[in-house]
Amino acid sequence: MYQVYIVDDAVLTRKALVMTMPWDRWGCVVVGSADDGERAFEEIVKLEPDIVITDIRMVHVSGLELIRRCRAEGIRAQFIIISGYNEFEYAKAALRMEVLDYILKPIDDEELQKAVEKAVQRIGETKALSAERREQEGEIKSLLLEYDEKNMNAYLRGALRYVRENYARELSIRDVAAHLAISDSYLAKLFKVELNITFLEYLTRVRMRRAMELMRDKNMPIYEVAERVGYRDYRHFSSTFKKLAGVGPKEFQMRS
């Protein structure tokens, strides 16, 4: 159920909103109401409702000030303003605070119902996006296995560190082995015996995890992401990414 909180200093308006709106239709329930912004703020912080419908002019704390305080506290509710004042400055201030809708009194039931429907739709989209982001964070963590390096062979520990520091350039097991002054065959054996993966698999996971982090910036071109994590061939990067993440890099970036 989506939780709704109502703020209005007019008793009849509050009662009408609670009693006459078909809240069940949208899977909503009114969890509280207040006649002033001060009390409303305290309860909204505690209840964290999904939707807040508030008057704009009230005693002590105005509707705009209430929204400003809520935003400062990290409250991400969908706010709908109802007001008897058709003033441009109010509407402009409301837009700056990402208010969903600004409805004039006397309230038109159909207009308010459309605003609530819009709020419910937006909440659903936001929750779906949050779920996708959480899933991607699982994907990112799974790409790089966490190893207990305390009891690890010193050469292998040094190899992992060297890869994490130099993944962005062309890197082979021979380069790492030369840096450690050991044979590449010995290093390959360490990866296989102690980690049960190959050197290339580890290097690829390090690169892909970093690529996923970079793609949180939706404005960064995919070819630039590829170059930053050590791939000169964009097509190779794209196919490797899709094989590990299950989706192509562009789709992943759009979901992030």
Give a short synopsis of this structure.
The protein has 256 residues and is of the alpha/beta class. The chain has twelve helices and five strands. The protein folds into two domains: 2-128, Response regulator (Rossmann fold, 3-Layer(aba) Sandwich); 144-255, Arc Repressor Mutant, subunit A, CATH 1.10.10.60.
Descriptive notes:
This protein is α/β, with parallel strands linked by helices. It has two domains: about 130 residues, Rossmann fold (3-Layer(aba) Sandwich), CATH 3.40.50.2300; about 110 residues, Arc Repressor Mutant, subunit A, CATH 1.10.10. About 60% of the residues lie in helices and about 10% in strands. The chain has twelve helices and five strands. Strands 2-1-3-4-5 form a five-stranded parallel beta sheet, sandwiched between helices. Helix 2 runs parallel beside helix 3 and helix 7 packs across helix 8. The model has no long low-confidence stretch (mean pLDDT about 90).
Core attributes:
single chain, 2 domains, Arc Repressor Mutant, subunit A, alpha/beta, Rossmann fold, 5 strands, about 60% helix, about 260 residues
Secondary structure elements and pairings:
Blueprint: E1 2-7, H1 11-20, E2 28-34, H2 37-47, E3 51-55, H3 63-72, E4 78-83, H4 88-96, E5 101-104, H5 109-143, H6 154-166, H7 173-180, H8 184-195, H9 199-214, H10 222-228, H11 234-245, H12 249-255
Parallel strand pairs: 1-2, 1-3, 3-4, 4-5
Query: What structural class should be given to the helix and strand makeup?
Result: alpha/beta
Number of strands: 5
CA gyration radius, whole angstroms: 27 Å
- Contiguous helical run count: 12
> Which architecture name of the largest domain does CATH use?
3-Layer(aba) Sandwich
* Averaged pLDDT: 90
Largest sheet: 5 strands, parallel
Ranges where pLDDT stays below 50 over 5 or more residues in a row are: none
At the first level of CATH, what is the class of the largest domain? Alpha Beta
